[in-house]
Amino acid sequence: METSMTDRLLGCFAKAVREKKELTEAELSSAYTEFMNHLQSITDGGQPVIVKLRRLRRLELELETYRHRAFPVLEGLTDIYLTKAAALVRMETDLLHFMAEHPGLHAAPSSADEKTRNRPALHWKGSLANLMELVASLDYSGLVTDGKGNRQSFAALVAAFETLFNVTLPKPYDLRADLARRKKNLSVLLPKLRETYEKNIVNCGLDRR
């Protein structure tokens, strides 16, 4: 059965099944943190509830596949993290159902929410590979953080850009790996952005003088 690479944690489970060996605590813990961030990006995003529930259900089905169907039962730390991941998805699903059933309990929207709601929808006109180049560059830079200054994971950045530009980046880890296999130039978009920036920034504000 084909395994989605939307989350690195699912890739870890696939590796454990394929190679039939236990994964390290560090590898599982890091992947689980990204998985939690990805779930939060789904539930906190601006998509309709039905879309969020559909994405969560797909994740739940993949996790159930490892536990009950196509693959043998995983053991040790891998089984523990599989159990935690499945429980986390179920919890987020239950919370979404609760929010849908009790809309009056939602907090009043902040001024920032109102501003976001009134903004025009943005759409990405370039290729998905070039968008991934931008996402990967920001990920490697470590410049994007949360409100507490904690560096955001690659999965969180992918989810944010998907929401920002109303686009889907399928199998983002594979898409990022494809960038390393470019034969001519590893970077295509960034040089163009630099050229465009340097060409136009010199005239910025001249019409206001």
From TrEMBL:
Pfam families: RteC. InterPro entries: Tet_reg_excision_RteC. It comes from the Bacteria. This is RteC protein. It comes from Phocaeicola vulgatus. The lineage of its organism: Bacteria, Pseudomonadati, Bacteroidota, Bacteroidia, Bacteroidales.
